[in-house]
Amino acid sequence: MAEEEGNNKDLKVIVFQLKDEEYAIEVDHVQSIERMQTVTRIPRVSAHIIGVMNLRGVITPVVDLRRRFGLEEKAYDEATRILVLSKDNIELGLIVDGANDVIDITTGDIEPTPEVVGGVEEEYLRGVVKLEDRLFTLLNLDKVLHDRSTIGV
Amino acid sequence: MASVLIVDDAAFMRMMIKDILQKNDFEIAGEAANGEEAVEIFKDQQPDLVTMDITMPEKDGLEALKEIKALDSNATVIMCSAMGQQSMVIDAIQAGAKDFIVKPFQADRVMEAINKAM
Amino acid sequence: MSNSEYLDVFIEESQEHLQTVNDSLLQLEKEPDDLSLVNEVFRSAHTLKGMAATMGFEDLAHLTHTMENVLDLIRNEELEASSEILDVVFDSVDDLEEMINDIAEGGSGKRDIQQIADQLEAIQRGEAPSAAGSAEVAAANAQTEVGGGAQNLGESYDEFELTVITQSKEQGFSPYQIRITLDENTMLKAARVYMVFEILEEAGEVIKSTPPVDELEEENFDHEFIVTLVTKESKEDLNERINRISEIQNIEIILIDPEELGENSEAESEPKTEAQGQSSKDSAKAESPESSQPVQQLEPQQQKKDDKDETTKKPSEANKTIRVSIERLDVLMNLFEELVIDRGRLEQISSELDNNELSETVERMSRISGDLQEIILNMRMMPVDQVFNRFPRMVRSLSKDLGKKVNLDIYGAETELDRTIIDEIGDPLVHLIRNSIDHGIETPAERLDKGKSEEGTLVLRAYHSGNNVFIEIEDDGAGINQQKVINKALSNGVVTQEEIEKMSDEQIFGLLFESGLSTADQVTDVSGRGVGLDVVKNTFESLGGVVTVNSEQNVGSIFSIQLPLTLSIIDVMLVELQKEKYAIPLSSIVETAIVNKEDVYSAHNQKVIDFRGNVVPLVFLKNVFEVPEAGIEDEYYSVVLVSKGEKMAGLVVDSLVGQHDVVLKSLGSYLTNVFAISGATILGDGQVALIVDTNALIK
């Protein structure tokens, strides 16, 4: 649980790795964390949607977050994880370089996104969290799930 | 005051019937949880009326009814049935049951059956 | 059972009864003399009233009651079932429907029914017949078998029964009619009936029972039955004995006079035999050819027995079905889908392991699950009548509103479709039917001018063909003005003049389904509802269906809809594009072919092949789906020929893998509008294959 008490709401987040930075996403809507698996390509959709996978019988779309953020590509490896998000009947897998741990923060820890987070569209982010010597960027879950740029082209 | 033997394997159902009967000034001659017990108590107490559950362990209500009728052909027995036991109820009527009531029990129905049977 | 469960049953049954009322009323309008129809309506209304009253829906109960009074007059022939009267009855049925729908949507079912109830009451008062008339009528009344006079509770007897009654009276027995009414809440009614009969049979001899004993045993009665008994006991004793049984609400015993009964029954017998001869003939015809023996030659008594057999048989057959909620069937279907996927997986594993015992077992399991699949899919099938049954009413009121005469013929209402599809096709069909009546069929005057019969005909047809069900809506009206469609399409920019020139008639008519095209000069109340034919087309296409239209000026139009039998498990052809697997629904495949490259021609920059005399364009799926790295080109093309209505295309693939049953799954809500992909499925090896929407590929 959070070390500091106050008016702030406790928040449990999953911290994951993307390139050389740490990001976080609320744990509430993370349904599971999967190892990389076979993904079937879907033709004629945005490049960051790499396809759909069979997640225990449910067809789940998969987005490569590096591609979505315009970061350089990297081959998937042992550390690669798929964060499966599920909210309001939308299911989505996010490919990240690695999922490290779950930590507790409070909403008060969230600070506005500074300029330094280059390349990533701001609206995709909810803010940055600084905890001791770690700094990570909090993703805006709703924006990720309702990403208009993912509609077929 | 008429006496009644209550036969039902569920204590809850016995309690319900007992409550209804006591409110209407009946005397409880005894309670039995299966057919075997029912026949024994019937022999001992000679109640004026028996309410007899159909489905019970050891000896079911139909068998107990037949045995009671063999002991006393004038015995007044009312069967207690669940829905869907139509054919068993008819068998019971054939075997000499005076009437039947269907679970879940309603007090007025129970009393109607008892009053008409006595 | 909780209250809401009662409510569900109430709503469902009420709707069924309303449907019966509707159907019978429509039939009655055509055959106003058929009193059995009035009885049918009466019975349903009566049941509905009872149900509504029990559930505390007062307006509903009140209106049904008032309607019932009018129906009662009609069935006693004290009132003629004229079109005007039926209009009012129909209106009240509309109100009933509204109330029940309101209840179904969670409302209170309250409604202002004063006006319609007043109308019904006026009918009831205004046309009350004279006493003499009513006696005559009662005597001639064959169906309800209500004899006049206080000496009868509404029983009639055949000669044999009369003889028994007369003879037993001579021997000092008293014949009684006993009407026994059970408590409304009686449970195990049959056991109650058994107790009554036990007492009656102890007291004397039961001559007759209405309903007959076997129906009473099946509980095919509301709460009332009439027994005719000859006994030496007094009325009072009988009453006392029956009264010992509980859950009996009312006992009515009357002494009957056989002589009076005889007269009554003779007076009745003339028209009765005629009417019944007719009805048994009809039912024999309806049942099967073998049973249509010369029924008329039978003695009247015999015929009567036949009729009774008819009525007793039906309910017991109906008892062999049970109600299962649709949700449960859906759950069953979902579980089975999981099984199908695992079945595929097992088949794959067993073929890899190549173990004899394993493959045999898997094969056997596959066969059984195949049978199971058929049963489950069949369970979900419902007759299209579920949708069709509301159309006669609709056509009737619509043609009245528009001042047109329309005769609706329905064929193949028993054709079955998956219930998911049934659920969806109602609205678009309504639209097409409105369209046909509004724009297709002309007014009586116009029709006479054209030398047609005054009454237009609308045919609604459903039939099976292969894996599809076809629904057609055909009218003999004005047809579609092709030039008008072209003009409109050109002015709306839907097509160009060039394109028009290349189009077939059917393709031009097909433009009607493009958005923004409606050829009605005048927007009427009926068709101007803001929903266009494009919505109709989209709905059918989302169900995997295809709509086409054909028409001839002044002869009529025909809208044809092709629908898949079922949605969730489909038969597909698996194909490969490089290493990717795609599934093409078998329902849209005409044929597969291997085509030599030399047989491919170019026309307008489009590669085509000659397929049985037709020029068919080729679609290179690898290009459409942007499949990476084109491999070494083969000398031959594997082509899957698909069709959409009359149009065809040849899909070029790398190889054909084979035919499979697969479970159709959605791509999820994150992805919308993926081009030419209608869903996905999970293959035996756990991989996902996309399902190709061939309709999107045929231009």
Characterise this structure.
The complex is a heterotrimer of chains A (153), B (118) and C (699). Helices cover 6% and strands 48% of the residues of chain A. With 153 residues, chain A is mainly β. Chain A has one domain: CheA-289, Domain 4 (OB fold (Dihydrolipoamide Acetyltransferase, E2P), Beta Barrel), CATH 2.40.50.180. Chain A has a six-stranded mixed beta sheet. In chain A, strands 3-6-7-5-4 form a five-stranded mixed beta sheet. In chain A, strand 6 and strand 7 form a beta hairpin. Chain A is globular and about 45 Å long. Chain B has one domain (3-117): 3-Layer(aba) Sandwich (Rossmann fold). A five-stranded parallel beta sheet of chain B has the order 2-1-3-4-5, with helices on both faces. In chain B, helix 2 (35-45) packs parallel to helix 3 (61-71). The longest helix of chain B has 13 residues, at 11-23. The radius of gyration of chain B is 12 Å and the shape is globular. Chain C is α+β, with helices and mostly antiparallel strands and 699 residues long. Chain C folds into five domains: 4-130, Up-down Bundle (Four Helix Bundle (Hemerythrin (Met), subunit A)), CATH 1.20.120; 139-296, Histidine kinase CheA-like, P2 response regulator-binding domain (Alpha-Beta Plaits); 326-382; 384-564, Heat Shock Protein 90, CATH 3.30.565; 569-697, CheA-289, Domain 4 (OB fold (Dihydrolipoamide Acetyltransferase, E2P), Beta Barrel), CATH 2.40.50. Helix content of chain C is 48%, strand content 22%. Chain C contains 23 helices and 22 strands. Chain C has a six-stranded mixed beta sheet. Chain C has a five-stranded mixed beta sheet with strand order 6-8-9-11-10. In chain C, a hairpin with a 2-residue loop joins strand 15 (600-603) and strand 16 (606-611). In chain C, helix 11 packs across helix 12 (300-318) and helix 17 runs antiparallel to helix 22. Chain C is globular and about 105 Å long. The chains are: A mainly beta (153), B alpha/beta (118), C alpha+beta (699). The A-C interface holds A 38, 40-45, 49, 51-54, 57-61, 89-92, 145, 150-152 and C 338, 341, 580, 624-627, 665-677, 680, 682, 686-690.
